[in-house]
Predict the 3D structure of the following.
Amino acid sequence: MTDRSTLDLSSRDPDWWRQAVVYQIYPRSFADADGDGLGDLRGITRRLGHLAALGVDALWLSPFYPSELADGGYDVVDPRGVDPRLGTLDDFDDLVAEAHRLGLKVIVDIVPNHSSHRHAWFQEALSAGPGSAARDRYVFRDGRGERGELPPTDWQSVFGGSAWKRVPDGQWYLHLFAPEQPDFNWENQEVRADHRTTLRFWSDRGVDGFRIDVAHALVKDLSEPLRDLGRPELSREEALTALPPGTHPFYDRDDVHEIYRDWRKILDAYRPPRMAVAEAWVPGARRALYARPDELGQAFNFEYLQAGWDAEELRQVITDSLATARAAGASATWVLSNHDVVRHASRLTLPPGTDLNAWLLSGGHAPAVDEAAGLRRARAATLLMLALPGSAYVYQGEELGLPEVADLPTEVLQDPIWEQTGHVRKGRDGCRVPLPWTTTGPSYGFGPGGAWLPQPPGFAAYAVEAQDGAEGSTLELYRTALRLRRKLLDGEELTWAPDAPEGVLRFDRGGGWRCVANLSGAAVELPAGEVLLSSAPLEDGRVGPDTTVWLGR
């Protein structure tokens, strides 16, 4: 059982988040208490002992709010409620109380860019008509063309197609994501006030922090006439770099930081202050702005997640990420998997340059993935990540070594990307398949019945029950790593070894802790020191390929 005594001390530190390990829960896929096939809050509460034993510092709950699930819960009907299928506010309060009893912090998602089209405000806007105060809370515009039959601009939705949808009276509304997710107008003071209320509502219920969804997209350039991008085919990343920083019509505009400075005043009014982390898909130098102490304080580092399994590339990403965080007065963040990307136990073993969508469309067969090799690489990547200074965000199931379920039949897919793109992009369901807790049962212990997405038979071997107490299992590797990490943490710096062999990452942390990650194809000599932990067995005292070792000096 994990010793929580040091965590209890750190939990009273207002800067607890700077080097925390945060476990992301996708509520509908974690644990089902009532047997309807959908994960719920009571299911999460019953399984919190797993997180305490694992040794994480906090849990982050993806949206559990009322939603029609047009985008997996990120289409929010009521940001201060609980979806009845997932529980009640009392269930949420019980979850927070139990988490705190176990020494775990609780972080929740805030979705400020858009609401559900079923939100009371949007329904009011549809009824009120053009020019109304109700419509001003969202982004409604007349269309172009002789009869307004064309969208107001060439802006494209992240999920494919135009970012505008026409309503029966002829106007169009903006949705950067699914049509069921109309964008708020952040020039409207009611919108700003309502989000302040939401932050206070959950903070008053004991929430310790917030993950801000699409933090870079709130503010748009709505000056007339609205301007086209000119090249709608550009990806989000390409469009951002094609324009001067801060001038994109709807991404990463300089004005957005005024909102977060206002939020920071609210978060700092609590004792201890509530933390926040931005999901901001922007270049590193721009990401630092969101992480400033007078704004959100921390921002996700997607360059690390997107990096290949290459020592030089990772070394540069790590160096740059630490410098970016230091410039902001924040700590770095590290993540390998989340609810939006192919699980790293599969992704990291694919050849460089693999088209992940094409791979998913092939059912994971072109190219084929060697699960054993993928797991070895994933374990090595985990020990490397956990050795880095800053916060590590762990996605549910990666402690079990779960691979991507790439061969889900198209008839069971739930992600709106599949339909929105005309069956061109398969979407994110493969990383959202419910967790296996036991080796048998209709849903491997996820719940008393089936699961909302089918689990493959191979999940039985990855189940918590199969790995608990099993020497060398991925679950036990995580438990040992997190226990050691808590004891070894000292400062937020690392020092690269100047003499590391090609293909090897080697660095020292404060307090005499050293990490060696061999990303090459051949075994390398092990530096002097006591072996504290290895992601794979050593080969005659040498570090084999795709292996990370922690050493004490």
Notes: The chain has 18 helices and 17 strands.
